[in-house]
Design goal:
Shape: globular
Distance between the termini: 36 Å
CATH topology of the largest domain: Rossmann fold
CATH architecture of the largest domain: 3-Layer(aba) Sandwich
Structural class: alpha/beta
Helix content: 25-40%
Number of domains: 2
Radius of gyration: 22 Å
Number of strands: 15
CATH class of the largest domain: Alpha Beta
Number of helices: 16
């Protein structure tokens, strides 16, 4: 299977090849040897350089579509789509299927062109798109894009009725069910089987002395990082042994650092900045005691599996696909979003109750072991091969010219 992949990511090139700073790429590039070749379509960065995650030949190839600056929080300006499609079109005869991650204007346009040309299409959905756009508006003057984001999502969901879809978490997957095409709920974990620590190692960690709380994620509005300060301030006031370590970077980091200084927590919080996904990040996880996830919107965060694989008990906000990932609270403690007090109480309970810690650690390790990168890749490759590869007859939905034309009209109108 020669699989084309589109996701709205930017790629950089230098003498050593093509790379990107998106950790999601580490998951996707592990698909070979399950697929013969991966062909990535994306935005080339005009400035040469190197990022942490490589597109390594010979099984992985990059096709630059067009460099463009985002015209709106939704993606490229509409006039760029024609040039994007012109760069994409010659590749359709060289792939067996397209996996298009959206909804966004480029994903919708590429999927419609591929279907029109008879190339099987699978859709990918990683987040609640309107919610993502809402949390990334530069200011209130961009409020007009929200109806457009909802229209794009409706168009993508209409496309999913006749295109197999892979969605992050059961919460998103449920929104895309209802048509004749199958939907797979999964995650995109980058923890390998060999990275999952043993139960003995995890349970041997002492909870006397310094207690290190970890948060990993983008430092932006969607992840609600300012709540971390309120939580660690409350914990530290009751027990000075608590410390907070933050991995990630983003536009809210200056505000987060200012709030830490204002609360006089400089010596209590440690910033790691962006740590590449892999052994360096796993080392940070393993030296901490508990994991806190404060996001306001999520599909299925891969940090849940990363923390569980390191043997960390979790406290997480009950939003999006998180409750399903934590089995309704069986493998992690769920708290409401936007409030510090419930998270503080849950973490203090973890510190005081050894039996609770043991149960959460053991169930979490089992959950991580069944959701390793290898396990998820196997499920995804099987799903694509059975439902979205040229030549697979009965399992692939047949799309009439009339429905394709209707989808194309919907895509054009939704991006106006």
């Amino acid at each position: 299977m020669r699989l084309g992949v589109y996701a709205d990511m930017r790629y950089r090139a230098d003498v050593n090849g093509v790379s990107s700073h998106h950790s999601f790429l580490r998951f996707l590039t592990a698909l070979p040897p399950r697929v013969e070749e991966l062909v990535f379509f994306g935005r080339p960065d005009p400035d040469p350089g190197r990022s942490p995650y490589d597109l390594a030949p010979p099984c992985v190839r990059f096709v630059p579509l067009l460099h463009y600056k985002r015209g709106t929080p939704l993606g490229p300006p509409p006039h760029s789509l024609g040039r994007v499609l012109a760069a994409f079109s010659p590749e359709l005869d060289r792939i067996d299927a397209l996996w298009a991650f959206g909804p966004d204007p480029v994903a919708l346009a590429l999927a419609l062109m591929a279907r029109r040309r008879g190339t099987p299409v699978a859709l990918g959905v990683r987040q609640d798109y309107p919610s993502y756009v809402r949390h990334h508006l530069p200011n209130k003057r961009w409020i007009w894009v929200l109806p457009v984001a909802h229209a794009l999502e409706r168009s993508f969901r209409a496309l999913a009725r006749s295109s197999p879809t892979i969605a992050v978490g059961e919460d998103l997957a449920a929104r895309y069910r209802g048509g004749r095409a199958p939907v797979l709920a999964t995650g995109f974990c980058t923890v390998s089987r060999s990275d999952v620590v043993s139960s003995e190692t995890a349970l041997a960690k002492p909870w006397a002395g310094e207690l290190r709380l970890l948060s990993v994620g983008r430092v932006d509005h969607e992840k609600n990082p300012l709540l971390l300060v309120d939580v660690i301030a409350g914990l530290h006031a009751r027990n000075p042994a608590w410390r907070l370590e933050v991995v990630g970077d983003g536009p809210l980091r200056p505000a987060l650092e200012e709030r830490i200084r204002a609360r006089r927590l400089d010596g209590v919080v440690k910033f790691h900045g962006r740590v590449p996904n892999g052994p360096r990040l796993w080392a940070v996880y393993r030296r901490c005691h508990a994991f806190l996830h404060t996001s306001l919107t999520e599909g299925l965060p891969h940090v849940v599996f990363e923390a569980q694989a390191a043997g960390l008990p979790l406290v997480a906000t009950a939003i999006g696909g998180v409750p399903a990932a934590l089995d309704g609270g069986r493998s992690g403690m769920l708290v409401p979003p936007k409030a510090a007090a419930p998270a503080i109480a849950a973490l203090e309970r973890l510190a005081a109750d050894g039996d609770l810690r043991q149960r959460l650690i053991e169930v979490g390790l089992a959950n991580a072991a069944s959701n390793t990168m290898e396990a998820q890749l196997d499920r995804i490759a099987t799903f694509l091969r059975e439902n979205a590869v040229r030549g697979e007859p009965a399992r692939r939905a047949t799309v009439s010219r009339a429905s394709v034309a209707k989808d194309a009209r919907g895509a054009r109108s939704s991006h106006r």
